[in-house]
Write a structure and sequence with these properties.
The chain is an all-alpha fold. Helices cover about 65% and strands about 0% of the residues. Helix 2 crosses helix 4. It is globular. The termini are far apart. It has 9 helices and no strands.
Length: about 200
């Protein structure tokens, strides 16, 4: 696929999710539903936002495993995501349909890596998860990822428009996740420094 073939549906409008082909194999059915973020990408409007919400919800029990397992899961989601997104795109008959949200899941998980590394939740994971500060930093991570994924500053916009196939679908969200994670770290550290000033 060449660069000029990268035509995507207009995400400013409500779009129906392309159905799974009737002759799809069992494997293709599984891949299709993973590509749709287990259904979180089905809404006709803002499927990327809903997909990111789905990714955040799925991340919560994964975060309880600790940083190293969460890092491994996140890296694997990026690697296999290239194939999942590419195959789902083929099944839908177009490039990077907005209902494909596995890339949002992976990007959201990348954004949460510093959260996991810094140990915002440890020990009694689910009790700490409902603490106000924990909820605030989780919501901040979500907002930052959505900001970068929607605004697409360079090099995100370049990756979104110029890279084809499953890699192209994944790459802009991977970069958005990295940028969101970096800004999240800066904001969290600067806030902590400010609050600890005498």
């Amino acid at each position: 696929m060449s660069d000029h073939d990268l035509v995507k549906p207009d995400i400013r409008k409500a779009n129906d999710c392309p159905p799974l082909p009737a002759n799809a194999s069992a494997l293709d059915t599984v891949v299709y539903w993973l590509g749709l973020g287990l259904g979180s990408g089905l809404p006709r409007r803002a499927p990327g936002t809903w997909g990111s919400v789905g990714g955040l919800i799925v991340a919560i029990p994964l975060l309880s495993l600790g940083f190293v397992p969460f890092l491994i899961i996140t890296l694997l989601s990026c690697i296999i995501g290239v194939w999942i997104c590419g195959r789902t795109s083929d099944l839908m008959g177009g490039h990077d349909d907005p209902h494909i949200v596995w890339d949002e899941w992976a990007g959201m998980w990348i954004t949460l890596l510093p959260f996991s590394y810094l140990g915002f939740v440890d020990g009694q994971f689910f009790q700490q998860l409902i603490q106000p500060m924990t909820l605030i930093v989780l919501i901040l991570a979500f907002i930052l990822f959505r900001f970068f994924d929607i605004i697409k500053p360079p090099p995100i916009g370049w990756a979104d428009k110029k890279v084809a196939g499953g890699l192209g679908i994944m790459l802009d969200d991977i970069i958005a996740g990295i940028m969101a994670a970096a800004v999240w770290l800066i904001l969290v550290y600067s806030t902590v420094d400010f609050l600890t000033l005498d």
